[in-house]
Design brief:
By secondary structure, the protein is an alpha/beta fold. The protein has a single domain, classed as Aminopeptidase, CATH 3.40.630. It has an eight-stranded mixed β-sheet, sandwiched between helices. α1 crosses α7, α3 crosses α7 and α5 crosses α7.
Length: 290
């Protein structure tokens, strides 16, 4: 069984953060270029790819949706498993961690699963996610989740990849929305987190348990009300809005990295060895749950 390739991960991050660079919603041209690259890669891996237009001003953005070749939209008795990541950034950052790391992880996950992908698997690159679309009906993930709900599609669950590349072993490098949480959770940012709302507790635990079978990277989980800052700060929010269980896999963003939404969010700040371990864990989870 293949393992994630840290060099491939780095190539994707370099492409997005350095070659493409800042890719906010207003740069439709750059985001279309990214969508084309993602599409070409998925097709080369053997997936069928479709594009879902997401309205934006007088044009549209694109959700890139990859599924196993020959699979139907809703296999009989087979709820779908969606794994997704957004590929846009805010205007001031090249977005190596946010969210090139997650897109790199999504594409490497697709490579690892390409030989025998679960028929209900859907790998989706969303656009946009960042402001001004953030946590509104204009998000690419909202359009996709809404289309599934309207079609009566059932989901086992959704796994949202949101910043999976920044790690630190420095004492005190990890913070939390509630200070007392550091009595329960690690004080070092050397783990990946599985985060969801209260309705997604069962799904979060299933993903966490399966993730552990594929990697030795520590994973911590947290399910809490949306009032806790950060619990629903990504594309899993959209799926929760339609009653689907969803979990965010994350390095915890602004609770750990000083480069969040900054010009300094560059490829050299990421830990590609541990990022590869995240993808290995995700591959194990998808194989077990898909």
């Amino acid at each position: 069984m293949r393992n994630a390739d840290l060099h491939r991960l780095r190539q994707w991050v370099d492409y997005l953060a350095l070659e493409i660079g800042r890719r906010p919603a207003v740069r439709v041209d750059l985001l279309r270029k990214v969508a084309e690259r993602l599409t070409e890669t998925f097709i080369a891996l053997g997936y069928e790819v479709s594009h879902q237009p997401v309205p934006y001003k007088q044009t549209h953005h694109i959700n890139v949706i990859a599924k196993p070749k020959g699979s139907i939209d809703q296999p009989p008795g087979q709820p779908l498993l969606v794994v997704g990541a957004h590929y846009d950034t805010v205007s001031r950052t090249p977005g190596a961690d946010d969210n090139a790391s997650a897109v790199a992880g999504l594409m490497e996950l697709g490579r690892l699963l390409a030989d025998n992908p679960p028929p209900g698997l859907r790998l989706v690159a969303f656009c946009p996610e960042e402001p001004p679309a953030y946590r509104t009906r204009s998000m690419g993930s909202y359009f996709y989740a809404k289309s599934l709900k309207e079609a009566g599609v059932k989901l086992k669950g959704m796994i949202c990849l949101e910043m999976i590349g920044y790690f630190s072993d420095e004492p005190g490098s990890q913070s939390y929305p509630i200070p007392l949480m550091n009595m329960i959770y690690p004080k070092e940012g050397n783990f990946i987190a599985a985060v969801g709302n209260l309705r997604s507790i069962k799904w979060t635990r299933q993903v966490q348990k399966a993730f552990k079978t594929g990697t030795d990277l520590p994973i911590e989980s947290l399910n809490a009300p949306s009032l806790m800052v950060g619990i629903d700060f990504s594309d899993h929010w959209s799926f929760n809005k339609f009653g689907y269980p969803a979990v965010m896999i994350t390095d915890t963003a602004f609770y750990r990295t000083p480069h969040y939404h900054q010009p300094s969010d560059l490829p050299d700040t990421l830990d590609y060895q541990r990022m590869a371990k995240v993808v290995d864990g995700l591959a194990a989870a998808v194989r077990a749950l898909g």
